[in-house]
Amino acid sequence: MSRLDRERTALVVVDVQEGFRPVIDGFEDVARRAATLVQGAQVLGVPVLVTEQYPKGLGPTVPEVAEHLDGVEPLPKTVFSACEAEGFDLGGRDQAIVCGIEAHICVLQTASALAARGVQVEVAADAVSSRAALDRDVGLERARNAGAAITTVETALFELLGAAGTDEFKAVQRLVK
Question: Is residue 83 among the annotated active site residues?
Answer without folding.
Answer: no
